[in-house]
Amino acid sequence: MRLQCSLVLLIALSVGCAAAQESGKQAGYDFFYLVLQWPGSYCDTKQSCCYPRSGKPAADFGIHGLWPNRDDGSYPQNCNPDSAFDPSKVSDILSSLRSSWPTLACPTNDGLRFWAHEWEKHGTCAQNLFNEHGYFQAALRLRGQLRVLDALATAGISPDGGYYTMGAIKGAIQEGTGFAPHVDCNRDESGNSQLFQLYFCVHADASRFVECPVQPGGRPCGNRIEFPAF
Ligand code: AMP
Fold first, then answer.
1. pLDDT tens digits, one per residue of 4-51
2. For residue 136, what are the contacts with CB-CB under 8 A and spacing of at least 6?
3. 64 CA distance to ligand 1 centroid (A)?
C-alpha cells in the first residue's frame, strides 16, 4: 500500500513538473535567468551610483532580476500592461527586497521604481507561474540558495580590487554552488573589465537551478577581471 501511495505521489509530482514546464512554453519561455549583481561594480563606473534611502546595501551579490528566457536566446517582455506593480502586494517582504534586491540608481530612492521595472518587464511574462508576490519571493528564495561570495572566498577570490581570471571565478562558483554562471562584466572609470553580473539558469517551474540552455550575448570580459570593493 505504501509503495502504491509513493508511486501515485511520484507520478503526480512528475505530471505537475511537466505541466509547469509546458505552461512555461505556452507562456512563451523555456527557462529563467536569475541575474545577480555585484554592487561594487555597478558603482565603480563613470556613471557612479546612489545608495537607496535605507542606506548602503550589504557588500554581497544582490538580485537584478528573474527573467523568463527562450532556448533560442530571445525573451518575452512587458507581457501584461494591465498588471502594474503594486507595492502593497510585497509589503511583507519589503525588508528582504531592500537587503537582497537593492536599487543603486540615482537619485536616491526606495527601490520601488527598480522593482516595478523588473516586475512589469519580466515578471508579467511568467504570470502562468507567479503573481507579483510570488515572483519576488521566488527570486529571493533562489538567491538564498546561492552563497556566491562564500564560494569565491573559499577559492581566495575577494572584492579587494584585485584581478582574477575567468577560469578562477567560474571554477570557484561551480565548486561552491554546483553551477557555473555566465559572467557579465562592465568597465570601471579607467576602462578595466570588472565582475558585474552573474547569470544562473533556473528550470521553467522555478524549482531548481539547471545548466544553461543558451548563454546571453554581450561584450566578453577578457581574462583579467577586476573585483572591486564595495
Ligand atoms: P533590464 O531592463 O531588466 O535588463 O534591466 C536594466 C535596467 O535595470 C537598466 O535601466 C538599469 O539601469 C537598471 N538597473 C540594473 N541594476 C540596477 C540596480 N541595482 N538598481 C537600479 N536599477 C538597476
1. 545 444 444 454 556 666 678 888 999 999 999 999 999 999 999 999
2. 90, 93, 97, 101, 115, 119, 123
3. 7
pTM for this predicted structure: 0.93
The CA-to-CA distance between both ends of the chain, in Å, stands at 58
Phi-psi region of 95 (alpha: psi -120 to 50; beta: other; left: phi over 0): alpha
CA gap 89, 8 in Å, rounded: 36
Q: Structural domains in the chain?
A: 30-203+211-227 (3.90.730.10)
177 lines ligand 1 (CB under 6 A): no
Closest CA to 94 of 40, 140, 148, 33: 140
Q: Which amino acid is at 98?
A: R
The amino acid sitting at 193 is S
Residues in contact with 187: Cβ distance below 8 Å, sequence separation at least 6, in sequence order: 45, 193, 194
Give the residue, by CA position, lying nearest to ligand 1 atom 16.
64
CB 179 within 8 A of CB 211: yes
Sign for the pseudo-dihedral over CA of 169, 171, 176, 180: positive
Indicate if 182 belongs to the active site: no
